[in-house]
Amino acid sequence: MSSSFKSPGDTAKAVASIGGSKNNLSIASLAILGFLAGAYIAFGGMLAEICNAGMAAAGFPPGICKFVFGAVFPVGLIMVVICGSELFTGNVMYMTAGVLDGKSSIGDLCKNWAGSWVFNFVGALFVAFVLAYLSGLMTADPFMGNALTVANTKALGGASFLSAGKAVKSITWVQALIRGIGCNWLVCLAVYMAVASDDIIGKIVGIWVPIMAFVTLGFEHSVANMFFIPLGMFLGAKISVVQLLWNNLIPVTIGNIIGGALFVACAYWYVYVKE
């Protein structure tokens, strides 16, 4: 009887092979697929914010609200993997494995990471501005208030702010870095598990569990934050572009690279592919 999933060793080899195949993408293809990946993650973020805000307004406990936020967010990565697109955080694992296995060069890695990061940002901004802000879906409470709190918490660099009359402390630069590591460790495990499965249901379950965990735990995803923080800015949050980049996207991106490259790509390449 044939198996519907790959062994860990075969999965590690498949990940390295996929990393090598990404060298063949043209800039135009990378731009289109990067835009789509950023939009898909933003769809998941928007859905999560609407569900979380609605449940919080109805008086559900914070833990339940966080779990629901995490439970619906994975729809974005499910679309990224099954429909096909170029997501920076997943490419951290793929391209690192490809370089380690000799299927990609450092130049290929830099081109893919830079291109996917930039075009993910464009896709996330499109959803934030056009589909969340201009549509009016996120411009009324409780959705607007929740989106403002999320954005301020991520981008104010440790400063406190008022949310619903209560003082809330934003995360610091170091906290953003550390949370970025935890995030992409789990995100890349989700992608790794999706590669391991040979059927769609297996891929969906493999993606859902780690993504639900990272979001519920409160880790930081650079591409998701390309939606969350700009949406807050469009809604009136007093966040500058410098704060968006320096207080969040830069440390979170660095953390995402460490989490995906070191704890997933390097670890599994060393154990299963190196010899």
Radius of gyration over alpha carbons? Answer: 18 Å
Return the CATH architecture.
Answer: Up-down Bundle
Q: What characterizes the major β-sheet? A: 2 strands, antiparallel
Q: Approximately how much helix is present in the residues?
A: over 70%
- Give the SSE order as H and E letters: HHHHHHHEEHHHH
Compact summary:
The chain is mainly α and 275 residues long. It has helices at residues 8-21, 27-57, 62-72, 75-84, 88-100, 106-134, 143-155, 173-196, 200-217, 222-234, 241-273; strands spanning 160-163, 166-169.
Q: Any descriptors?
A:
single chain, 275 residues, mainly alpha, Glycerol uptake facilitator protein, two-stranded antiparallel ribbon, 11 helices, 2 strands, 76% helix
How would you describe this protein?
- With 275 residues, the protein is mostly helical.
- It has a single domain (8-153, 169-273), classed as Up-down Bundle (Glycerol uptake facilitator protein), CATH 1.20.1080.10.
- Helices cover 76% and strands 3% of the residues.
- It contains eleven helices and two strands; from the N terminus they run αααααααββαααα.
- A two-stranded antiparallel sheet has the order 1-2.
- The mean pLDDT is 96.
